[in-house]
Each structure stands twice: as structure tokens, then as C-alpha cells.
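Question: what's this shape?

___
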Amino acid sequence: MTHMMTRPPVPAGALRTTAGACAATAFAAFALSDLAHPGYDPVAEPVSRYVNGAHGWLVTLGIAALSLAVAAVAALAGRGRVPLAWAAAGAAVAAVFPADPPGRWEAPSPSDSVHGAAAWTALILLCAAAHVVTRSLRRSTGVPLRALRACAAASTTGLVLFAVCLADRMALTHSAPLGLAERLLLAAVLAWLALAAGALREAAR
């Protein structure tokens, strides 16, 4: 009987390229959205609020690109694949359902509620998976393990800071730098995705 090797449906090199390109696209889209909406305050307002501006499509593009980057890393991963896949799905839902305009914390729309729940689910799962995947690479050679650990730790720290700022904006002093906290979290997450894609590809060789 001839043994047939099963090839993955998508080559690992293509998945690595997809993850890196989508992470870079998401970063660029979010940065351009900040520049294209000078009337908004990026320190105070989350990225998703910008979807209501004149160039709101940049936000949708960025979130969709983030979802694709996570999905590509999930396809490369062994351990951590399931939470990454669910994180990608959550980000996709967040891209479909837009957030409300700034200043509507007291009475969010159904779309905003779905967006918030999906985005938070995606971010929590992604941050948790970052630690699982990074730990699974600790015995691999030729991977930037120190950088992966730093980005995973920064992601978790950013998530906690984002949660504290959100609680303040919703119920306490209403002055916490929510937008800045989210942007730091997104930067750490996107950096981890780009590094993880390369590391997982290298470890599979």
C-alpha cells in the first residue's frame, strides 16, 4: 500500500505572507484613519468610533485585515489554534457591525452592542492565545522568542489598561485615555501576529 502524504490546503509560506501583509494593512488603515479624521481625538476615542466619519471604510478595512491575519496565524498554529480561530471570527463580526458615533455611551445601539461584544471576545481570546502559542515555541530554534514574549506581555497589559479605561469612561470620571489604550493594545497584537506567523513557519521547517 502506497503511503500518501497529505499536504496542507494552503502552503505555510503563503499563510505567513498573508498574516504579515494583513497585519501591516490593519496597522496602516488604523493610522490613516486617525490622520483622515482630525476632528476626532485619538487619545479619547476608540478606533472603531471612526467608522462613522468621512473615511470610515478605513476602520472596516483595518478590522477585516486583523481578522484575516488572526485566521492565517490560526492555520499555522498547533496549540492555540482554536482560540485564534474564534478570535478571527469575533473580529469579522466586529467588522460587519459598526460602532456608534462618539458620545453615545449611555444608550448604545444594537449594532454597537454586537460590535463591542464581538471585539472584546476577539481581543481576550487573541491575548490568551498569544501566550499559548508563544509558550509552544519555547524549544524551537531560529525564532524571535524574546520579542514574541514581549509582544504577548504587552498585549495582555494593553488589554487590562483598555478595560480599566473603558470602565472609567462608562461609569467613573469619563476622562481616561481609552483611545490611546486601545491603540497600544492593537499595536502590540499586530506586532505579535506578524512575529508569530514567521516563527510558526520557521518552527515547522
Notes: The helical segments are 12-36, 57-76, 81-96, 110-136, 145-171, 178-203. Residues 13-101+108-203 form one domain. DSSP finds six helices and no strands in the chain.
